[in-house]
Write a structure and sequence with these properties.
This protein is 5% helix and 41% strand. The chain is built from three helices and 35 strands.
């Protein structure tokens, strides 16, 4: 049966309104961070910055970016993935979601860049996760169109060194991969051929809110085989995360009957292990989401409370779902979990007019505050060194805190520090607006705005003993203002990376500037 696009759009908008799910930018050793611009170098030389910044540029189009919450855009070693515009118009202008240029994934690993190429016939690619072994999972268009919905078809992909391997479907037209572990096990959602009129989990967890007309089932792909993980009793499910033990976490309908409070069937988070999908339940409501899993099998997310008018962050461990509470308001969400069980996310303040980033450890939620006078902040990632990153804004948005954003770093529960104050200003004028990811060695990935409104992915690399010294760590703002260069290197063009970072030219797009 054909699903109405209007119904799906309405369902998606209602879901965002009800749950305020966070959607952003479409997120070293522990340092005693202080809000000053930089520390003085020995001998009274130019300032020594805590980080050097790398404008990751584009593939010839205006913008790059593309991370949403619960993605894995950086691994523990600091390799990063992002999406970059090409100069080619998007072949599906009615469905484009990142301006309307064809957009391709890019991986940056220790300097060199590799494009994450599309499947034959496709144009757009959508990386979602990079493992510590530098495998990348995501999805690619294949150049075909769904004859029922008119939307582009897309297939789950595993990239090795930029080359895509299609993971197939469960009998339907499309699939998406969302996460991959170090051994190459991939999870996601794939369509089967059973007609489905319910709002589909593709709409809940995929950056492609395209209409589909058949059921989605969670899958685990391993060694060339695509395994249907089933559902919790309803027609649809989706797996978003996989740990090194091969345990998967995601969401599933438990039935097909819409609830009066949400308009949707009950949607519960699950964990899948040893051939069995376990319902994690909720905090009393009829809708919950898994937002992450660690190697201990601990799952985090958010769940509606009874009545479905409010939702709280949760931690599920040892068979029990724990309500992590809030900072005094109605709502909150857990977005990241470390191996030690620390949880980062956001929670409403009393009155629920704004929310702040938090870190939850050992039963205690710590308010990380905001940058300057910003009223709102959201934490998106944390590492084992006690560092937390996210963004800070004016509160006019929901999860992302609205425009006028600052990226922030908090160390060991300390106050949020504006990331723009921790590196030499870029000659391109790129302003850091939000951080999505931090590695175990301290690299930070995020996105920023140029003066013309275009966005670029931005990488911050610590100036410390773990990373090679770089002239950009010792450049003063006065030097940049006077010369228009950074550390004596020519100023980068609007669509190119800084000197010293090189693209491996494997992209089919011949007009990119690298």
């Amino acid at each position: 049966m054909q699903r109405s696009t209007t119904l799906l759009e309405t369902a998606y908008q209602e879901r965002v309104k009800r749950l305020a799910r966070v959607s952003i930018l479409s997120l070293c050793a522990a340092l005693a961070i202080a809000p000053q611009l930089a520390a003085q170098s020995p001998g009274g030389a130019s300032p020594t910055y805590r980080y050097r910044a790398v404008d990751l540029g584009t593939l010839g189009g205006p913008s790059s970016g593309g991370c949403i919450p619960e993605c894995g855009y950086m691994n523990s070693q600091g390799s990063a993935i992002f999406r970059a515009n090409t100069p080619v118009p998007d072949p599906f202008p009615n469905f484009c979601i990142f301006n309307c240029y064809a957009t391709v994934g890019v991986k940056r690993q220790n300097g060199p860049y590799t494009t994450l190429n599309p499947l034959p016939g496709g144009v757009n690619t959508f990386p979602a996760w990079i493992s510590d072994t530098n495998l990348v999972a995501g999805f690619s268009e294949n150049g075909l169109t769904d004859p029922v919905t008119g939307a582009p078809e897309f297939l789950a992909v595993l990239w090795r060194n930029g080359a895509p391997t299609s993971l197939g479907t469960l009998g339907g037209l499309s699939s998406t991969a969302w996460a991959v572990n170090n051994s190459g096990e991939v999870v996601g959602g794939a369509l089967n051929n059973v007609p489905d009129t319910l709002p589909n989990p593709f709409y809940y967890v995929s950056p492609l809110p395209f209409p589909v007309s058949t059921q989605t089932h969670a899958f685990l792909w391993s060694r060339g085989a695509l395994l249907d993980l089933g559902t919790l009793g309803g027609p649809d499910s989706f797996a978003q995360f996989v740990n090194e033990a091969g345990q998967a976490a995601g969401v599933s309908y438990t039935n097909s009957t819409p609830n009066g409070t949400t308009g949707f069937p009950t949607l519960d988070p699950f964990i899948w292990a040893n051939g069995h999908m376990k319902d994690l339940g909720t905090l009393g409501g009829t809708m919950g989401f898994a937002n992450g899993i660690n190697n201990q099998g601990h799952v985090i997310g958010q769940s509606n409370l009874a009545g479905d008018t409010t939702f709280h962050p949760f931690l599920w461990a040892a068979g029990h779902m724990q309500d992590l509470q809030t900072l005094g308001g109605n709502n909150g969400s857990a977005i990241w979990i470390t191996e030690a069980g620390a949880v980062a996310g956001w929670a409403d303040l009393p009155g629920s007019q704004v929310h702040h980033a938090f870190i939850w450890r050992n039963g205690k939620m710590t308010d990380l505050g905001t940058v300057g006078t910003d009223p709102c902040s959201t934490a998106y990632a944390a590492n084992s060194q006690g560092q937390v990153v996210g963004n800070s804004g004016d509160g006019s948005g929901s999860g992302a805190c609205g425009p006028k954003l600052h990226g922030f770093l908090s160390a060991n529960g300390g106050p949020a520090v504006d990331l723009d104050t921790l590196y030499a200003p870029l000659a391109s004028g790129l302003h850091f607006s939000g951080a999505c990811c931090i590695s175990e060695s301290g690299e930070i990935l995020g996105f920023g705005f140029l003066a013309n409104g275009d966005t670029h992915a931005l990488l911050m690399i610590p100036c410390d003993a773990k990373h090679p010294d770089n002239p950009d760590c010792h450049t003063s703002p006065a030097d940049i203002a006077a010369t228009g260069t950074i550390a004596g290197n020519p100023a980068p063009g609007a669509n190119s990376p800084l000197a010293g970072d090189t693209m491996r030219k494997v992209s089919p797009y011949k007009t990119h500037p690298w």
